[in-house]
Amino acid sequence: MKFKVLSIAIIYAGAVVTCVESLYLTGHLRTKKNWEFLGRFCFLSDLGRLKFAFTYPHEKCCYNILLYTDNDDQWATVYKNYSKTCADKESVLRPENHEVINLTMGYEWSGCHITNKTGARTLECSGERSFGSVRERWWYIAISNCQGKDGLDVSYEMSLTNGNSFWTQQFSADEFGILEMNIVFFVACMLMLANAMRATAELANRQMLHTTYKIFLACLVVETFCLLLLSVAYGTFAADGIGHDGIKILGELLGACSEVGFLVMLLLVAKGYTITRGQLSQIGSIKLTVFSTIYGVISIVLFLYEYVFSDPGLVLYVYESPAGYGIITLRMMAWFWFTYSLIFTVKHYPEKAGFYYRLFLLYSIWFFAVPMMVLISSYIIPKYMRSKIVNALELCIDFVAYFTFMILTRPAAANSNFPYHVRTSQIGIIMPNGRMETLADFPHSVYAETDLNGRRVSNFADLFSADGPLERGSEAIQGDDGKSKAHNIKDPKCEERNSVTTVDHHTQHEASPDPSRNGKAEVCAEENTSGTVKLETTSSTNA
Predict the structure, then answer these.
(1) pLDDT of residue 381
(2) Which long-range CB contacts under 8 A does 101-106 form with residues at least 24 apart?
(3) What is the mean pLDDT of residues 269-276?
(4) What CATH class does 26-162 carry?
(5) pLDDT score, position 113
(6) pLDDT above 80: residue 18
(7) Closest C-alpha to 140, from 33, 26, 41
């Protein structure tokens, strides 16, 4: 049921976009009001053009097309100002600047003529209008009939364009460059994804492909697919002026999903998951699940608010809404949580400080990016440039965030900040009862050991210790007295070096090491006086 409601909301959102914010506006308006807003468009300084066609009953003459600019003394004074009458709203315009198009036969630029196609006399008006100004500016289009007493009843069709170029004609001037930016960053993300896939294969080969890196890779894939869909949506819109709203909506939904996933991944890394610990506490898991769910739900609400409830008569940033303020609040809470977790991880694992210091400095910028963009877009960026600048900033910030994490986690010898040191095969341990459990906290080590060729070298001594009898397969090794003994273990590796370790509760004897095993680590067993069996490493060297 919830999915059905969401689907209906998304479909309705697409309809709103087509009828209100598109460059091709068409419909039939019937209202008791004498003044009504139709749409807005940002025209170039000298290349903007409006083509229109209006039809209304002749006896309800006379209608006017009103063209308001974004000057403080025009649109801002009339929109949603219920104290002004229809005549007051018309009076702020200057007819000498052709800001009023009178839809009557007496106004030659309106192209009106009387028809009688359906048995009733109607006025059909069609024509064009060019826009000129000293800069790009928003123009707001309204229709009025201040002398009428029955409101408005009119069919309309309008096409608004900028120049003749494929990259500009169908777009509002505030959207110039969005298509090109989407294409450029899609190609850049494809290259980054190819490099990340190569790193993934290397990490998998070294058994270091941990869950956090998989989440990063999944978010990068979703972000790349998001940019592909947005490029297709804007490209088809550039071709026909209509486009496919469903593709655009899906692309933006995927972008929101990748943002939520990346934020969760950063919180997991800050907590040390897969870096200093193998699992989160139960309370920590519940908190993270609840937080990510709330963040995701509010992100969807923000998305729907933009398309369904946003006011087309106002040029607002998407975050200038209740849902947007909620997202900003949660993002700041996430940063505090990120910082708190990171401090305690570094406190217990200071050898990881190099990685975590860089993570904190770089991604604190990412957490504060949205509040900073809201402030910049609201008070610094002009409204006629807001959309393209904000889009460019968001793409740059997301790309840098993904690229930075890929650099910090690249499996290269030159990367001194590589965070992982425990292999995926070393996280789970078999307990004496045969159950597999995950290590809650990893041992203190900077890197897992590898040889010069990058091949792994087993060194389990620093990773595991177990209380109780040492097991081989499913059988515990028992002595004659029923107690656990380690000296009965026959390890082929220990036999190869002709080194036999005999352990009792008092003394330990070890044969001379085999010189042919010079420099290699072997795993043997030792039982200490407390009865605890642990794995230790014995290294043999030449005399």
Answers:
(1) 83
(2) 101/52, 101/64, 101/65, 101/67, 101/127, 101/129, 102/62, 102/64, 103/54, 103/56, 103/62, 103/63, 103/64, 103/65, 104/61, 104/62
(3) 88
(4) mainly beta
(5) 87
(6) no
(7) 41
Give the model's confidence band at 316: pLDDT under 50 very low, under 70 low, under 90 confident, else very high: low
Other CB atoms closer than 10 Å to residue 305's CB: what's the count? 17
Can you read off the two tokens belonging to residue 411? 């499996």
CB-side exposure of 395: number of CA atoms within 13 Å?
Answer: 25
Mean pLDDT, all residues of the chain: 75
The region of weakest confidence among 29-33, 120-124, 278-282 is: 278-282
What is the residue whose two structure tokens read 């409830």? 309
Rounded Cα distance, 427 and 535, in Å? 16
Q: Are 392 and 383 in contact (CB under 8 A)?
A: no
Q: Where are the domains of the chain?
A: 26-162, 173-408, 424-539
Looking at domain 173-408, its CATH class is: mainly alpha
Higher pLDDT, 536 or 447: 447
Closest of 276, 204, 272 to residue 456, by C-alpha: 204
> Rounded to the nearest 5 degrees, what angle is found at the Cα of 351, between the Cα atoms of 279 and 461?
65
